[in-house]
Design brief:
Layout lengths: L3 E6 L3 H13 L4 E7 L3 H11 L6 E2 L2 H4 L8 E4 L7 H10 L2 E4 L7 H13 L4 E3 L7 H12 L5 E9 L2 H10 L11 H4 L2 H11 L3 E9 L30 H7 L3 H4 L9 H10 L16 E8 L4 E7 L6 E8 L2 E6 L4 E6 L5 E3 L11 H14 L12 H19 L5 E2 L1 H11 L2
Parallel strand pairs: 1-2, 1-4, 2-3, 4-5, 5-6, 7-10
Antiparallel strand pairs: 7-11, 8-9, 8-15, 9-10, 11-12, 12-13, 13-14
Helix pairs in contact: 4-5, 5-14, 9-14, 14-15
InterPro entries: Gfo/Idh/MocA-like_OxRdtase_C, Gfo/Idh/MocA-like_OxRdtase_N, Gfo/Idh/MocA_Oxidoreductases, NAD(P)-bd_dom_sf
GO molecular function, one term: nucleotide binding
Protein name: Oxidoreductase
């Protein structure tokens, strides 16, 4: 197995804890040879993680992607609005590229990157990790087998989790759509991609409703303060208390590493006293929705509904797929799939347990991407989550956000779809 070398552009949460961690766990498969990251502390951590010398560390993507290709692949894990230009430059230099989702919050950039991957005959794999999980792969396998006949209706729910909502989309990096992406694109492009993949048809119409209902200043409880550690009168009873989430309950083991690089009582206290994650959830500068529904119609007549809510006790996804000959019901986090073929006994379908984040999807994505890179006889073949494959789900998200902003109007995506398919040569 040939070791693949990589340039890591962006060493934040995904860059360090997913792609960088894969290289540390499987050094025979992947080696990080350079890191571009504007945050000095993160650069130092990356140097320690991967044994990098100072001349392998860069302040910006412009420096590492300046003129000469120095690795096999480029992993682009910057913020949403910083994806396009480094991706285009990396493709031009000859890199195969692994790009964090979403591709971009701008339609023209999505199309330009898809075009560039074809023009330069390079892989551009988008990190729609759910397709690589044992759970969703098994559901796709059942559908393709014909066991439920033609798909008629799909209902998919994404339960974001109250603590994840507060962390990422109220206090955190993705709380303002104009600086990152709308919620339906940033968080739920995974789900629209799964719907597009499972139904395997062109989406023709989209409508959507949603709003920022709860995390608003007018909903702040009496006696609350700007920060949870500033003597808030209701902090002990508030489920969104930063003290409880990052210091006290079981959630701290997962989420505290994202608020500070110094996992000590002193480091955590400083983050809560001075950083964005110590703010009261009712006194932040957030504007992305905390709940949304999307209705979709497909060319051959199937319809789908998607619900995203930030108000759930856990992070989970559930799905119901109704076909002309049967039905599938699934609960991703429990790896539970039940097949109901009409007139037959229900069948519990076994699912292999995936290792790593996103139900095994993170590691599954990395393994498949590296396998493709090693396969020098690809002859331009693109992967399961290529830029070409991702165009439709991005258009679905753009249409959904337009509909939501217009009060739920039905948006015909045929014009967008035709433009996209012509652009990427599908």
């Amino acid at each position: 197995m040939r070791q693949i070398t990589a340039v890591l552009v962006g060493a934040g949460a995904r860059g360090r804890f997913v792609y960088g961690a894969y290289a540390s766990k499987y050094p025979e498969e992947l080696k990080i040879v350079a890191v571009a990251e504007p945050n000095e502390e993160r650069r130092k951590l990356a140097a320690k993680d991967h044994g990098l010398a100072p001349n392998q560390l860069f302040d910006s993507w412009e420096q590492v992607l300046h003129s000469t290709q120095i690795a096999d692949v480029a992993v682009i894990s910057t913020q949403d609005r910083m994806h396009c230009i480094p991706t285009m430059k990396a493709l031009e230099l000859g890199y195969d590229v692994l790009l964090e989702k979403p591709m971009s919050p701008l339609i023209d950039e999505v199309l330009a990157m898809a075009d560039a991957s074809r023009e330069h005959n390079r892989l551009l794999t988008v990190c729609h990790v759910l397709r690589y999980t044992p759970f969703w792969s098994k559901i796709k396998e059942i559908i393709v087998s014909g066991a439920i006949g033609q798909i008629v209706n799909v209902q998919l729910s994404e339960n974001v989790g109250y603590f994840h909502m507060a962390h990422s989309f109220v206090r955190g990096n993705w709380n303002k759509s104009e600086e990152t992406s709308p919620m339906i694109l940033q968080k739920s492009c995974h789900d629209l991609d799964i719907l597009s993949w499972l139904i395997d048809d062109r989406c023709t119409k989209v409508s959507s409703y949603g709003s920022l209902l709860h995390f608003r200043s007018e909903n702040a409880p009496h006696g609350s303060t700007l920060r949870c550690v500033e003597g808030c009168a209701v902090e002990r009873d508030c489920p969104y208390s930063a003290v409880r989430i990052y210091k006290e309950n079981d959630l701290k083991n997962e989420w505290t590493r994202f608020i500070t690089n110094e996992i000590t009582p002193e480091g955590i206290n400083e983050a809560l006293e001075k950083g964005p994650f110590g703010r009261c959830v009712y006194q932040c500068d957030n504007n992305v929705v905390d709940h949304q529904v999307v209705n979709l119609e497909f060319e051959r007549g199937a319809i789908a509904s998607f619900t995203m809510s930030g108000f759930s006790h856990d992070i989970s996804r559930t799905i119901q797929i109704m076909g002309t000959l049967g039905e599938i019901r699934g609960y991703m986090e429990k790896d539970e799939i039940v097949l109901y073929q009409f007139g037959k006994e229900a069948m519990n379908i076994p699912v292999a347990v995936g290792e790593g984040g996103h139900g095994g999807g993170d590691e599954g994505l990395m393994r498949e991407f590296l396998k493709q890179v090693r396969n020098s006889s690809n002859n331009g073949a693109q992967g399961l989550t290529s830029a070409e494959a991702s165009v439709q789900s991005h258009m679905m998200a753009f249409a959904a956000e337009q509909s939501r902003l217009e009060g739920g109007s039905s948006i015909a995506v045929a014009g967008w779809s035709a433009r996209c398919m012509n652009s990427v040569g599908s």
